[in-house]
Structure formats: C-alpha cells, structure tokens
Write a structure and sequence with these properties.
Blueprint: H1 3-8, E1 16-17, E2 20-21, H2 27-43, H3 47-61, E3 67-69, H4 71-77, E4 81-86, H5 96-109, E5 114-119, H6 123-135, E6 139-144, H7 145-150, H8 152-160, E7 164-168, H9 175-188, E8 193-195, H10 206-214, H11 216-229, E9 235-239, H12 244-250, E10 260-268, H13 280-283, E11 285-289, E12 292-296, H14 321-329, E13 332-338, H15 339-353, H16 359-371, E14 380-385, H17 393-400
Parallel strand pairs: 4-14, 5-6, 5-8, 6-7, 9-10, 9-14, 10-13
Antiparallel strand pairs: 1-2, 3-4, 11-12
Helix pairs in contact: 3-5, 5-6, 5-10, 6-8, 10-12, 11-12, 15-16
The protein binds pyridoxal-5'-phosphate.
Pyridoxal-5'-phosphate is lined by residues 94, 96, 123, 199, 239-245, 313-314, 358, 360-361, 386-387.
Length: 402
C-alpha cells in the first residue's frame, strides 16, 4: 500500500491507528460507540449533510480562512518565510467551531434530542453552545465550579447562547470532575443524547469524527499555498493539546513526504519539572486514558499526572491516538515551546503584525520564530494560528505588568 492510501484508510474498523486508539470502555458503552460510528459513516456520505455543513462553513464560520504571509515577522527574524492559517478569524475566534458544527449537525441528522459535553476553560463550551443555538438543538454543558469562577466571560457567553450550564462541585471541581459528571448524565440517556467531545480524543469513533470535521483546515491551506506560491511549504506547524487543530492541519499534508510536519507541545515551566508542563508525546509513555490507547503523562502511581501550561487549552495529560501513531512512525515530529517563549511570541506577533494570538496558538508561533533564523529566505513555514487571543489579553497584561 502506498503511504497516501494507508493514511486515508485510518483508523481501521476497530478504531486503531497502529496500536493506538480503540474503544477501552465497558461493553454497554462499546455498543453505544459502535452505533454512533455506524450512524456517522452513513450520514457523512449523504450529500444533504455535506452540503449543509459546507454551507455553514462558508456563510456562518466565514471559511475559507485566509493564509497570511507574516512579512514583517519573517524579515525581522532573517530566515524562512512565516505564513499563518487564520483560524482566529473564524466566527467565535478559533478552530473549535469546525468540529462543534459537525457534531451538532450530526446530532440533528441522528435525531438526537440533546447534545452534552464538559468544558474546562469554557472554549469548547462556548463553541458548542454556539453551534447548538444555530442548529436548534438543546445543549447541556458541565463545568467545574472552580473553572466557573475563573472563566467568567465564557460562562456568561454560554448562558446568553441558551445552553444549560451545570456547575460541578464535587472533588477538585475542575475539568476531570466535569468530565465524570457529564458522562454520568450522558449514560442516563445515550439514545436521545450525543456526547460532543472537544478534541481528537476519547473512544472510537470520536478521534476519527473530530479529525474529519477539522480536516477542512489543511485542505484549504494546502490549496491556498499551492495557488499562491506554486509549491508546498517546507514546514507545517501547529500546537498540540488533545490535537484537533494540529490533525486538522496535518491531514491534507500527510502524503506529501517533502513537507515536514511539526506538532508543538507545551513545555510549561520546564520538561524537567513533573506537573509543570504538559508535553505528553515528548515526556509520556503509551498507556490508556478516557477510553483510548495513547501517550499518557503519568505520576509515579500509574494515574494521569498533574499538568500545566500557560495556555489552558493545552493542559491535558493524554493526546489523540493518531498523533501517538504519527510520532511512532516518525511522520510528524513533536517539539515543545515553554511558557516564556510562548509569552514572547504572543507579544511579538501582536506588535510586529497586529495579530493577537491565543496563547495556545502562540506555542506554534514560538516554534516558527525559533526555527526560521536557521532556514533560508526561500523556505516557508506554515503555522496554524488556531485562535485569537482576546480571551488571554487580561492574563498577559497582568503577567507582564502592562
Ligand atoms: C482548545 C484550543 C486548542 C487545543 O486543542 P487541540 O484539540 O489540541 O487543537 C488550541 N488552540 C485554541 C485556540 C484552542 O481554543
């Protein structure tokens, strides 16, 4: 099999990318996941589904998002040309709307009465509440009480958008408890509800579904870059939390052996400081988490480790199974950017190009800024700018004493 057909066939029928992925869930849940997979495989082939999704991508999200040549930044660094895929310009300001619209529309086509999810910092919650308002399907979001108090703007937005926000007060009252709570509620009515996962993680078919909905990013970018430059970029980079914006960008480029793909994980306050980074593929090992086999950061006792990143969207102790596989076969290289480098990239992009990036996306920008000077001026780095940084402005201003 050639490499391109091999990638197109992934995952296999059991949801595996090599030895990663699968469905590590109790038997009754496996049936529920198999039903979602069968419905998805049928619905995604339907012309009316694809037409409605394409129409919403164009007229609602504002796709295609442009690819911008960051000339001043490139000149200042004195090396490769840096280009930005502007997912920050999407409605709601990030790539998450791509898969949230896909999931909300899928729920409608499946005849579900409700969509349910958890949210940590609230980014997934806002994108999903937006998509559900548009599609006209009730939405229930579980969020830890501690996060609710920290993330006021997103909490307000979810309420305005009409979703039912459930405050989770048990335990540490953050993301993990919100996942548990949302999942318990989901299991009360899996026939009437669709659980909308926020990245390319969880049991099969979610890593596949979310990837498919995000792959529009790379398809557009590849075509835009070819049309403009008559060639493909030398490097394509994206930040990696669960891995949805990265896999969305990489998928179209996987068969292009001459294009180097680089996923950028958060080194936080240092890779040698357990609990103070979130570099799962760099420092973790193969394991299991949230119903999938994937790289996992563990503490000494075999539990998921505490994680940290300056970007709350990247602090996850697991990572998508396809990324775990792509690391193993060497098709994608995974590197890191620290909190300090990320802050520097955030400020530099703001002041040199007038673009305030999300702190998540600034990790990929930091990698490009570090790499560009060692390359030639006729080489090109394409960065997925996954979201805008309005949400991070107060935090950065406080951190830097602005
Ligand atoms: C949530 C988020 C991420 C991280 O999620 P992935 O699934 O790894 O893409 C990255 N960038 C932005 C702007 C986000 O909101």
């Amino acid at each position: 099999m050639s490499q391109s057909t091999e990638f197109a066939a992934m995952p296999d029928e059991h949801g595996f990318f090599g030895s990663y992925g699968g469905q590590f869930v109790p038997p009754h849940l496996k049936q529920v996941m198999d039903d979602i997979n069968a419905a998805y495989d049928e619905i995604r082939r339907r012309a009316d589904f694809q037409q409605e999704l394409a129409g919403l991508f164009a007229d609602y999200v504002g796709r295609p998002s442009p690819v911008f040549h960051a000339r001043r930044l490139s000149d200042q660094l004195g090396g490769a040309q840096i280009h930005l895929k502007r997912e920050d310009l999407n409605h709601t300001g990030a790539h998450k709307i791509n898969h949230c619209l896909g999931e909300a529309l899928l729920a409608k086509f499946m005849g579900k009465r409700r969509v349910i999810a958890e949210t940590g910092a609230g980014q997934h919650g806002v994108a999903l509440a937006t998509a559900c308002a548009l599609v006209g399907i009730p939405c229930e979001i579980h969020m830890g009480q501690v996060d609710i108090e920290k993330e006021h703007p997103n909490v307000i937005k979810m309420k305005i958008l009409g979703c039912k926000l459930v405050a989770v007060t048990r335990g540490a009252a953050t993301l993990k408890e919100a996942v548990d709570s949302a999942f318990e509620e989901y299991l009360k009515d899996p026939e009437g509800t669709l659980y909308a996962i926020g990245s390319v993680v969880g049991p099969h078919p979610f890593p596949k579904m979310v990837r498919d909905f995000q792959s529009i990013v790379g398809r557009e970018a590849r075509e835009q870059f070819l049309a403009r430059h008559g060639r493909l970029p030398d490097y394509v980079s994206a930040c990696v939390g669960g891995g949805s914006n990265a896999i969305g960008m990489f998928t179209a480029f996987l068969p292009d052996a001459d294009v180097s793909l680089v996923g950028v994980e958060p080194a936080g306050e240092g890779l040698d400081r357990p609990g103070r980074h979130s570099a799962t593929l760099t420092k973790g090992r193969p394991g299991q988490l949230h119903g999938m086999a994937c790289y996992v950061l563990e503490d000494g006792q075999g539990n998921p480790a505490a994680v940290h990143s300056i970007a709350s969207g990247l602090d996850y102790p697991g990572v998508g199974p396809q990324h775990s596989y792509l690391k193993e076969i060497g098709r994608v290289v995974y590197d890191v950017a620290s909190d300090a480098e990320t802050l520097d990239a955030f400020m530099t992009l703001s002041r040199v190009e007038g673009i305030i990036p999300a702190l998540e996306s600034a990790h990929a920008v930091a990698w490009a800024m570090r790499t560009a000077p060692s390359l030639r001026a006729d080489q090109h780095i394409l960065v997925n700018l996954s979201g805008r940084g309005d949400k991070d402005a107060d935090y950065v201003a406080q951190k830097l004493g602005l």
